[in-house]
Specification:
heterodimer, A: six-stranded mixed beta sheet, 12% helix, B: Helix Hairpins, Heat Shock Protein 90, 27 helices
Chain lengths: 147, 777
């Protein structure tokens, strides 16, 4: 039997993304945020997650996509990392999907720019493509990761 | 295998704790060789280590511990007397054991060294002629000790000792009784004494009771080891509970239900008490870090040929664990400095009419919610003139400046980076990286360092630090609708200017706003502007408006932070920021407010540096309050002028330079073809600019090289220059663009043509990734 992976999915602009389910701590609706002036431009602010201060990264800005409509509130995908929890702001949270390894393919050479660094691969689903996010690189805002 | 690892870990933790105590015990034992309890405890520790490592199969460690143990057992039995050679030998053994434990911790093996020399030395020491050493007077009593003690791990004070201490029986009587015992008399010591008529039944019974009382309650019964991580988590949870309680209390105020009100009051009290108790779990006595100092002082004093006694007061003063960790190194450094530079050699002291033995006095006490630590030595103190001369020599200040300086100012020069007054550089201290690091580290945790000098009579360094870092009093301010917390330690006062006062009060020096605070110019910094939220902040103030100035102090320099509103002071729980915000130096952390929202805590020093109130480099205390002109164009900037090669005059913007340092040529090592030095626990590559530019230089043969350090994140690169000439404030206009390697062009600085170093290019050739983020930006 082909091995199966589980991904927590979400919508970002017109793109359909997935993050390995084990890396997701929780998903939350919109949370109030405190902005942190002077921080890296992709940092939207700080969230109080049951007493823990969690940095929220706007995934649209991280992937250099068009900004979200002002009235549309983002949702949080909270990731578990070695450095504590980190939230990714996404448009809409989807289901947890199971995909077969055989459907996986690395991104085509034509994919360039920031997406090249952050998209680890693609699952060819029947009706659409599921892009897999490299979470470590996504949350690494140090110069090397920003390359 | 995992089980085994656990056992080894436990062994390591336990042994480390014991070894720390051992250092102190050994040094104090050297002074009072007759303290049997200490000797017994040392013996026990080594015995335990030996036993356990035999069981775990660490043969080498076992052998070293074994020779140490045999030496100790001779000491314990009075066959040898402790002298300084034996103490040194034993300390060396402790070091060896510690080193092996370190190796075991890292690699699960004891390491390569075989310690044969040490083992031989210790064997020789224990084989020394016993007759040559004086036998401690109460040795005979100890023999009975051995025969009476049921288990070697919990020795009771011998009955003989107890009787001697109370003065009930003379040593002679006991000796007589012991002699009888040794001769085969089956009676107990007490019975023998009564029989001899030297003691009554009463006295013996009382002494026996005393003996039982002296039985130390085992520490293991009254304490348990807890993971610090768990305590931190508890602390967090309590912080949460406090917030929830605040919300309930607010809710309660609106409700007016009696039963509910009573319950919430109870909740309030319990939470407060719980918070205090949890805070206490993180507190540790300062004695924990002081206990290492006697050993440090002893070794150093021996090395420098000095006689120094260390005295301590207030060992039990408690501090938060994180603070204890943070002050450990600065404290050790100060102590080393005092021993090495402060206290004179015995002969010098004698000629000055001081006792030959110098005294280093440490004192800790609580005062006003802060912990005070004082380190006093009765040495030579600091010679202000010598400090000035040195600073001028090192081009840290100008001669005119030195002449104008008060003694107090001059003494504070020792806190400048790259300063050391030691006549000769020893391997102990005096490498020029010293007091500035001490100061920075203490200020980092919200503390202050003050120096009182009594020339010729010694000096006192006073350190004030907060009790805890976890919960701090803070002032809350608002700007652009966002709340920010400012730690109260940096707060001096609050000034509010209404309408016309504000218009008159705030003046501008070439665009830089200042306020006259009691006759002194206070540079003003607008929070909104510093945070990049708005640029046009200094517009005229309307009649019904007001300006709030929070007067803060950073690095000993006051400045005014203008905010939109000042809210209140509050105790806040400091929470760390994620990695993504670590690079933003204006924040010290974050906290959660009563309404559940996050507020950022401002790092006062970071803001001061960002706004140039204090510069990050050497001239921070000296440069006058010059501020960069906000308008671009001919902006003035601080330039570091230096020689690269014998006569290559060059300059770089000071703002990019992290530090100025000096290194002994002998400390420069090679890594591949690259020259490197060990710098702040890291390896820093060095680039000799003279070589880079192919110029002749004297740095190749000099004993000390001057280095301009560039730091990004945690990486540093040092540019070796021939000489630092000056730090000047000039508007930089590149007169001639040059395309030659490593320069940006030339400009006229101080009336002389000076090449501008392209540090980015030079460093880029050594470490191409060093400036990557700049390039990416």
């Amino acid at each position: 039997m082909a091995s199966v992976q589980q991904y927590c999915t979400f919508q970002l602009d017109a793109l359909y993304f997935g993050v390995e389910v084990q890396k997701v701590q929780e998903v939350l609706r919109y949370q109030e945020m405190t902005v942190a002036p002077l921080a890296h431009e992709v940092v939207s602010g700080l969230i109080n997650l049951r007493g823990q201060i969690v940095t929220a990264i706007d995934l649209r800005r991280r992937l250099e996509l068009a900004p979200r409509d002002a009235e549309r509130l983002p949702m949080n995908v909270v990731l578990r990392t070695d450095d504590g929890a980190i939230s990714l702001l996404v448009d809409e949270i989807g289901d947890v999907v199971e995909v077969e390894d055989s459907l996986f393919e690395t991104p085509p050479e034509t994919l360039t720019g920031i997406a090249r660094t952050l998209v680890a691969g693609v699952y060819k689903l029947e009706d659409r493509l599921l892009l897999i996010l490299d979470t470590e690189r996504t949350v690494d805002l140090s110069p090397v990761g920003a390359e | 295998m995992n089980d085994m690892d656990d056992v080894v870990d436990e062994f390591l933790v336990e042994s480390y704790e014991n070894l720390d105590r051992l250092d102190t015990d050994l040094v104090s034992l050297e002074e009072n060789p007759n303290e049997r309890a200490k000797l017994a405890s040392i013996f026990r520790t080594i015995h335990t280590i030996k036993g356990t490592c035999g069981f775990l199969g660490f043969g080498k460690l076992e052998r070293v511990a074994h020779v140490g143990e045999s030496l100790l057992s001779k000491l314990r039995d009075g066959e040898l007397a402790l002298d300084s050679d034996i103490t040194s030998g034993l300390l060396a053994m402790v070091d060896a054991v510690r080193k092996m434990l370190g190796n075991i911790e890292q690699s699960r093996s004891e390491g390569e060294e075989d310690y044969a020399a040490l083992i031989e030395q210790l064997t020789k020491l224990s084989g020394r002629d016993a007759a040559a050493s004086p036998t401690p007077s109460i040795a005979p009593a100890t023999v009975t000790n051995d025969s009476q003690t049921p288990s070697p791990s919990t020795p009771l004070p011998s009955l003989g000792d107890v009787l001697l201490n109370t003065g009930a029986v003379s040593p002679k009587d006991i000796e007589l009784a012991v002699a009888k015992q040794l001769a085969g008399d089956p009676l107990r010591l007490g019975e023998l004494l009564v029989e001899q008529g030297s003691a009554t039944h009463e006295t013996i019974r009382e002494a026996l009771k005393k003996q039982q009382e002296a039985h130390p309650t085992s520490v293991a019964d009254s304490s348990i080891r807890v993971d610090v991580g768990l305590l931190d988590k508890l602390m967090n949870l309590v912080g949460e509970l406090v917030l929830a309680r605040n919300q309930i209390l607010q809710h309660n105020a609106r409700q007016g239900d009696n039963a509910y009100s009573a319950t919430s009051q109870r909740l309030n009290l319990i939470t407060t008490e719980l918070q205090e108790s949890v805070m206490k779990t993180r507190m540790q006595p300062i004695g924990n870090i002081w206990s290492k100092l006697p050993r440090v002082v002893r070794d150093l004093a021996r090395q420098c040929g000095k006689e120094i006694r260390i005295e301590m007061e207030g060992k039990e003063t408690e501090l938060d664990k994180t603070i204890i960790e943070a002050i450990k190194d600065p404290l050790t450094h100060i102590v080393r400095n005092s021993v090495d530079h402060g206290i004179e050699t015995p002969d010098v002291r004698a000629t000055k009419g001081k006792p030959r033995e110098g005294v280093l006095f440490l004192r800790a006490f609580h005062e006003g919610g802060q912990v005070n630590i004082e380190i006093h030595d009765d040495g030579a103190g600091i010679d202000a003139d010598r400090v000035k001369k040195k600073a001028v020599e090192k081009a840290l200040i100008t001669t005119e400046h030195a002449a104008r300086m008060s003694e107090r100012e001059a003494i504070n020069l020792i806190f400048l980076p790259g300063f050391s007054t030691a006549q000769r550089v020893s391997n102990v201290s005096g490498r020029g990286v010293g007091m500035d690091v001490v100061k920075t580290n203490i200020e980092k945790i919200g503390g202050q360092v003050d120096l009182q000098n009594h020339a010729g009579q010694g000096m006192t360094i006073k350190i004030k630090i907060p009790l805890t870092l976890a919960i701090i009093p803070a002032l809350l301010v608002t700007t652009q609708g966002q709340r920010y917390a400012i730690p109260q330690v940096s707060l001096l006062e609050l000034v509010r200017l209404e309408g016309s006062d504000a218009r008159k009060g705030i003046e501008f020096i070439h665009g830089a706003p200042v306020y006259r605070l009691r006759g002194n110019l206070l540079p003003l910094v607008h929070l909104t502007k510093e945070l990049g939220l708005a640029s046009d902040v200094w517009r005229p103030v309307g009649d019904d408006e007001s300006v709030n100035i929070v007067v803060l102090q950073a690095d000993g320099r006051p400045f005014g932070l203008v905010v939109e509103a000042i809210n209140d002071t509050e105790e806040i729980v400091v929470k760390p920021l994620g990695k993504q915000l670590k690079g933003t130096p204006v924040y010290a952390g974050a906290t959660i407010m009563g309404d559940g929202r996050v507020a950022l805590i401002l790092d006062v020093l970071g803001i001061a540096q960002r706004s140039n109130v204090v510069s990050q480099v050497a001239d921070r205390k000296l440069a006058e309050a010059k501020r960069e002109d906000a308008t671009d164009g001919d902006a003035k900037q601080s330039l570091l002028v230096f020689l690269a090669g014998k006569d290559g005059r060059m300059a770089v913007p000071l703002s990019a330079v992290a530090r100025l340092e000096e290194f002994q040529t002998s400390t420069i090592e090679l890594s591949g073809d690259q020259e490197v030095v060990q710098y702040r626990d890291r390896i820093m590559p060095l680039v000799r600019l003279s070589r880079y530019f192919g110029r002749t230089s004297e740095t190749d043969s000099a004993a000390i090289v001057q280095v301009v350090v560039y730091t990004r994140e945690d990486r540093s690169i040092g540019l070796v220059v021939d000489r630092i000439l000056d730090i000047v404030e000039e508007s930089l206009r590149v007169r001639r663009k040059m395309q030659s390697r490593g320069t940006l062009g030339s400009a006229v600085v101080q009336g002389k043509v000076t090449d501008l170093l392209d540090a980015q290019a030079v460093i880029g050739e050594v470490d191409p990734t060093f400036f990557e983020d700049l390039v990416a930006a």
